[in-house]
Amino acid sequence: MDDHTFVYPAYQSQSIANIPATVAALLGSPYRGLPALPDELWRPVLAGDSSVRRVVVLLVDGMGANLMKHNDEDVAWLGEQALAQGELTSVFPSTTVAALSTLWTGVAPAQHGLVGLQMFFPEYAVMGQMLNLSPVFQRSPDALVSAGLELETFLEAPGFGDQLAAGGVTTYALKHYSIANSALSRMHGRGTVKDVPTVAASDTFWRIRHLLESKPEEPMYIFAYWSAVDTLEHVHGYDHAAVRAELRSVLSLLQSELLEKLSAEGRRDTALLVTADHGQVRTPAEQRIFLEDHPDLQRMLLMATAGEPRTAYLYARQGYQQEVIEYIQSELSHAAQVMPAQEALAQGLLGPLPHASDTALRVGDVVMTMREGYSFLTRDTPKFLIEMNGRHGGLTDAEMRVPWFALRLDA
Q: Please, what is the end-to-end C-alpha distance for the chain in angstroms?
């Protein structure tokens, strides 16, 4: 793709895909996957020869670097306490299901096989929505599991929890109670001792503190996920006052309910890593493009698009791949970049080789990624999804750059 404003994932050096190896390195645990982050982003946490026996990763969904810069005065304290900080890239597509699957395997989307929010399952003759493992046409949670999808093997890479367990490290996952025991959480949580349901951000930090205080001698990894910032960005856009208020609230609770209340025993040999899965870009109504408004393109497609509104996987009718590409280049070049799917895979856009067995099938024939602000939709999309003012999934700076803060709690 030739759009020079796009930010490409740095899978081999400085992306969220390198966080699992970094956690394993801090804990001294054996690990197989993509390499760790550059030394300067994590080795200062070791503070000379001091060991780390517990690592907490706080992932704030949607907390892009653009959001942090827009709220400098609210987040300055975090940078002041960090021993190392910087920016990482997200994965491609820059969407939660792909990114979290990477964080729970340590490999890129093309390698683990979960490459987007919507994926085509020819074996079940259905387009699946991967948050709920449901058909897209009817919310029926876990229906793909009932159809035969195996949670233990669908991601074609070892579970990060399994790898840490082999090294004697216990893994805990903290998530909102509405998703803590979902099929997707179980898919991610291979080797996790427990999914700990939480009710609010305050509860999340209390539970992190409780785990650290109650198990001071246990080598552990705690992964805490909070989604409300991302949800508000979808509704309002990343630069809205409500988003700023939520970010300020989450970081304030991190400080008051975790960092300020931990005992010396709870802090001992503990590192805290704060990051995000992706950012968001504003997607105003005037930049929504509907497939039905392009009947010539629609006739060249075999089926509805997979992927998501910021990155679509197009399945062309037999023999029409080049015609689909040429149509988009002719009629939609102001809004999108397009390339053959096999080229996107060959360039490593979704990750290096080896790829999962079904990756080529999942990305269709043509990959179309939207430029700043544009969305690609169908008119039968639910109204609340059409009207989102913020989205992610593409390659813009706003979507792809996320913050990274590494703290040592007993420093």
A: 44
19 and 57 Cβ atoms separated by less than 8 Å: yes
**Continuous segment of H or E residues that includes residue 118:** strand 118-121
State which H helix or E strand residue 370 sits in. strand 366-370
3-class secondary structure, 26? helix
Question: Are 276 and 291 members of one domain?
Answer: no
Other CB atoms within a 10 A radius of the CB of residue 73 amount to: 7
Whether residue 139 is contained in a domain is answered as: no
- Is-above-0.85 flag for pTM? yes
List pLDDT tens digits, range 188-242.
Answer: 999 999 899 999 999 999 999 999 999 999 999 999 999 999 999 999 999 999 9
Please tell me the distance from the alpha carbon of residue 294 to that of residue 319, in angstroms, as a whole number.
19
Q: Residue 262, class by beta-carbon neighbours within 10 Å (0-12 exposed, 13-18 middle, 19+ buried)?
A: buried
Q: In Å, how far from its chain's centre is CA 8?
A: 15
Residues 355 and 367 in one domain: yes
- Say which range, 51-60, 103-112, 133-142, has the weakest mean pLDDT: 133-142
Between strands 375-377 and 390-391, the pairing is unpaired
Neighbours of 330 (CB within 10 A): 8
Domain that holds residue 43: 16-114+155-282+397-408
